[in-house]
Amino acid sequence: MTDYRIAPSDSLQNVRYEIRGRLARRAHELQRQGYEIISLNIGNPGLFGFRTPETMRLAMIENLPEAEAYCHQKGIFPAREAVVMQQQARGVSGVSAEEVFIGNGVSELIDLVLRALLNEGDEVLVPSPDYPLWTAAVNLNRARAVHYPCRPEAGFLPDPAELESLITRRTRALVVINPNNPTGAVYPRATLEALARIAERHRLVVFSDEIYDQMVYAGAEFVPMATLVHDTLCATLSGLSKVYRACGYRVGWASFSGRTHGASEYFSALELLSSLRLCANVPGQWAVQTALGGHQSILELVAPGGRLCESRRAIIDMVASSRYLQLSPPMGAMYAFVGVDRQAVPQFDDQQFALELLEHRHVLVAPGVSFNVPYRNHFRITSLPDAATLREVFARMEQQLAEMAVRPDTAGAGRVVQAGDRFK
Q1: Sequence spans of domains, the chain
Q2: For the CA atoms of the chain, what is the radius of gyration?
Q3: Dihedral (C-alpha) 147, 150, 153, 159: value to the nearest 10 degrees?
Q4: Which CATH number does the domain 54-293 belong to among 3.40.640.10, 3.60.21.10, 3.30.1780.10, 3.90.180.10?
Q5: SS3 assignment for the chain
Q6: Contact assessment for residue 124 and residue 278, using Cβ atoms and an 8 Å cutoff
Q7: Which pLDDT tens digits describe the chain residue by residue (424 residues)?
Q8: Which CATH number is 13-42+304-411 given?
Q9: Cα gap 206→174, rounded to integer Å
Q10: Do the beta carbons of residue 247 and residue 217 sit within 8 Å?
Q11: Cα-flanking dihedrals φ and ψ of residue 123, to 5°?
Q12: Are strands 366-367 and 205-209 parallel, antiparallel or unpaired?
């Protein structure tokens, strides 16, 4: 009998999403065996006790009779109009509901906006580190992600001149993630202005991922990219999942501004793709107008004394007291991209550390290489747990790093943790 094998598509060879990969599957196995895992690999507010505002839930419930049929492929008009009004209030001109597309979360829209634009061999400038779906979606759509460095020593901010040097005749778009996932960097206005001028000079489409737009700390200023981009097309992507703690609603939007008059064919392609999937989740769309026009409870969570602010402070304090860890303080979002001092732990490897931390200490983190960086001494955690839980997490990390620091080089990064190893 011949071997029977169903091979996956070759298009997946360069696609990674380790945030939900091998380590997450192992964590699930441990949980099924009865172990309590502190999962810090995903920014999922509902798992940490954050609730969607009640007004949004009520808006969805009250409109359920209107949510049983397919809606327009771009989304329901009240949701799109609410996005327009938010953009106008922020100083973005020239946007109407016709330039707004609602999707099943920003994740779906990332794929759609790239698929409507890219041809085989095209290039897209993507930050490194990045939210890995951007790189994956570029690869899936037959193009090449060109990563522009946002280095730890520069506070994870890009160098505009270095970024511009990476542009070729095949470059079609520039991705900006601000506030940034995974680093928590919030880009200064001057940096964003420089990126806007580069995109305009080279006629690049700007994709600005602003899903964490109101999550800023310690006086950091969030500047909407669409207020700065005028002479090329700019897409602002955001949604309900983070600021409004409604991940499961699966509602995001892409709002186009800037030089829209030359993009009619692109918009038609995007509408075609939107039509092929019929429409986005309708019940969740009825929460958009209430979310954007109602009380912004996120501001209380990120203010001094608010839970997210206090969790961020706990992370900064614990890193400062560590013998092994380093951190560029996150100024936005809900993550910290933590570095490990290679002099203190010479054989440190982010994937090995994440695996050992899970097996021995029952804490799940995302290795830095998951975010398309060339170095191996960082990992990402979410700041969603309360401060007490985070202090416990860092105590366990310190124990694991202390063990790794004294390990002989011959048993260092090459050692593979076995599934039978357990928390001690």
Answers
A1: 13-42+304-411, 54-293
A2: 22
A3: 100
A4: 3.40.640.10
A5: CCCCCCCCCHHHCCCCCHHHCHHHHHHHHHHHCCCCCEECCCCCHHHHCCCCCHHHHHHHHHCHHHHCCCCCCCCCHHHHHHHHHHHHHCCCCCCCHHHEEEECHHHHHHHHHHHCCCCCCCEEEEEECCCHHHHHHHHHCCCEEEEEECCHHHCCCCCHHHHHHCCCCCEEEEEEECCCCCCCCCCCHHHHHHHHHHHHHCCCEEEEECCCCCCECCCCCCCCHHHCCCCCEEEEEEECCCCCCCHHHCCEEEEEEECHHHCHHHHHHHHHHHHHCCCCCHHHHCCHHHHHHCCCCHHHHHCCCCHHHHHHHHHHHHHHCCCCEECCCCCECCEEEEEECCCCCCCCCHHHHHHHHHHHHCEECEEHHHHCCCCCCEEEEECCCCHHHHHHHHHHHHHHHHHHHCCCHHHCCCCCCCCCCCCC
A6: no
A7: 568 888 888 887 777 777 777 888 999 999 999 999 999 998 999 999 999 999 999 999 999 999 999 999 999 999 999 999 999 999 998 899 999 999 999 999 999 999 999 999 999 999 999 999 999 999 999 999 999 999 999 999 999 999 999 999 999 999 999 999 999 999 999 999 999 999 999 999 999 999 999 999 999 999 999 999 999 999 999 999 999 999 999 999 999 999 999 999 999 999 999 999 999 999 999 999 999 999 999 999 999 999 999 999 999 999 999 999 999 999 999 999 999 999 999 999 999 999 999 999 999 999 999 999 999 999 999 999 999 999 999 999 999 999 999 987 644 444 444 443 433 3
A8: 3.90.1150.10
A9: 5
A10: no
A11: -125, 145
A12: unpaired
Q: Which residue has the tokens 């522009």?
A: 148
Residue type, 79: A
Q: Which amino acid is at 237?
A: L
Predicted model pTM: 0.93
Dig out the tokens for 3 from the structure: 């071997």
List, in sequence order, every residue forming a beta bridge with 144; answer none if it has no partner.
Answer: 123
Amino acid at the residue 193: E
Return d(Cα 137, Cα 105) in angstroms, integer.
Answer: 14
